[in-house]
UniProtKB/TrEMBL annotation:
Entry annotated with the keyword Transferase: yes
Keyword entries, A-Z: Transferase
Any Pfam family matching the protein: CoA_transf_3
Species this chain originates from: Mesobacillus persicus
InterPro entries: CoA-transferase_III_domain, CoA-Trfase_fam_III, CoA-Trfase_III_dom3_sf, CoA-Trfase_III_dom_1_sf
Protein name: Formyl-CoA transferase
GO molecular function per UniProt: CoA-transferase activity
Lineage, opening ranks: Bacteria, Bacillati, Bacillota, Bacilli, Bacillales
Coiled-coil region(s): none
Length: 404
């Protein structure tokens, strides 16, 4: 039983940031009902790759949820929404600012129906400020916040991160914000509005960069495969592949010199005796290290580092990572049975609770798979539900999978 069992989440978000947020809440036991458009549903349903016509992108971040497809522009659809919001603890949306007002599902309107609602809006630039009207995209945020100026090789073209850090970052920010607001609600009974900005969610991660900039206006630049402060803390080439070695403090550096690389004289070398000096001479240091490491395979050096207590590891591709014995032993890859896709794997939960474990129970829903079930829970009779389906107010996936 997850720690959030009993919490009711109404999710009108789509693509990545909002759905990732509500997936985490669902894994933790919350009851998440996903509201989708009648035509096409969540836009990520149109993103490949596809298996048997179903989007695996949508599949990855919408597990443990129910789907109801509603036409929110219709009066009857709005009535269904109002009934749902009355029983919800949390509402999550990621419409562009102003859209919820036009649909009549903005915070002020919703608060009149449920004054204890925790209303979480995830947008590109937030609900206020000169950029609030702009749409938000992960890569634009990576550029705007300075991330791309410090990613890649020095003097090279700015590079994006390999993953959607700001989309997922906004989802994570929304999760901890919702949990904090939920604790406040449990104590006081009061809900509130949460304004989460995709473009701001990653700024707190720039800790070392902020330290240098606010201290002496140092502008961080691209450092390629090397750490910004510590050395050697970087990718190092072995005979057969690159590997990561992390001498993040003086103790591990000295162990690296004496027990791994066989160069105890480097400890007192006036180029390498301190981390600051090593960082100043990092290109020279890297060349000297690789003259030695290129003589043996990466596995050999990683083993030596582990024996010496020096942090090190392989640079895996994603397939290698997903088949890593440690991740598999820690249940970071789970398999579910989907009614259309069949067997499909997902990434597991990274937190292991001793008493209230996260659970991955059901696959991502088909569009409108639970429309009938959700309305039945609201007290709608079968005849009325069928009329709503016939008029296009809601969409129900075929009955054969509707209750799975």
């Amino acid at each position: 039983m997850g720690p959030l069992k009993g919490a009711k989440i109404l999710d009108a978000s789509q693509i990545m940031a909002g759905p990732y947020c509500t997936m985490v809440l669902a894994d933790l036991g919350a009851d998440v009902t996903k509201i989708e458009k009648i035509q096409g549903g969540d836009d990520s349903r149109q993103m490949g790759p596809f298996v048997n016509g179903e989007s695996t992108c949508f599949y990855q971040i919408n597990r443990n949820k129910k789907s109801i497809a509603i036409d929110l522009k219709s009066e009857e659809g709005k009535e269904i929404f109002n009934e749902l919001i009355k029983g919800a603890d949390v509402f999550v949306e990621n419409f562009r600012p102003g859209v919820t007002k036009s649909l009549g599902i903005d915070y002020e309107t919703v608060k009149k129906l449920n004054d204890g609602i925790i209303y979480c809006s995830i947008s590109g630039y937030g609900q206020t400020g000169p950029y609030s009207h702009k749409g938000g995209f992960d890569l634009v945020a990576q550029g705007m916040t300075g991330l791309m100026s410090m990613t890649g090789e020095p003097g090279g073209r700015p590079l994006k991160s390999g993953i959607a850090v700001y989309d997922i970052g906004a989802g994570i920010t929304a999760v901890y914000s919702i949990l904090a607001a939920y604790i406040h609600k449990l104590k006081t009974g009061n809900g509130q509005m949460l304004d989460v900005s995709l473009a701001e969610s990653g700024l707190p991660w720039f800790t070392w960069e902020a330290a240098a900039y606010f201290a002496n206006q140092t502008i961080p630049e691209a450092t390629g495969h090397r750490h910004r402060v510590s050395a050697p803390y970087q990718a190092i080439k072995a005979k057969d592949a690159y590997m990561m070695i992390g001498c993040a403090n003086q103790r591990t550096w000295e162990k690296f010199c004496t027990q791994v690389i066989g160069k105890p004289e480097w400890i007192t070398d006036n180029r390498y005796s301190t981390n600051s000096l090593r960082h100043q001479h990092v290109a020279e240091l890297e060349q000297e290290i690789e003259e030695i490491t290129k003589q043996q395979e990466a596995f050999y050096w990683i083993e030596k580092c582990e024996q010496a207590g020096v942090p090190a590891g392989p640079i895996n591709n994603f397939g290698e990572a997903m088949n890593n014995e440690h991740y598999l032993a820690r249940d970071m890859v789970k398999e579910l049975e989907h009614p259309v896709i069949g067997k499909m794997k997902v990434i597991g939960s990274p937190t292991k609770f001793s008493d209230t474990p996260a659970e991955i129970k059901t696959p991502a829903p088909l569009l409108g798979q639970h429309s009938e079930t959700v309305l039945q829970e609201l007290g709608y009779e079968s005849e009325r539900i069928q009329k709503l389906i016939d008029r296009g107010v809601i969409k129900q996936y075929p009955q054969s999978v509707s209750n799975q």
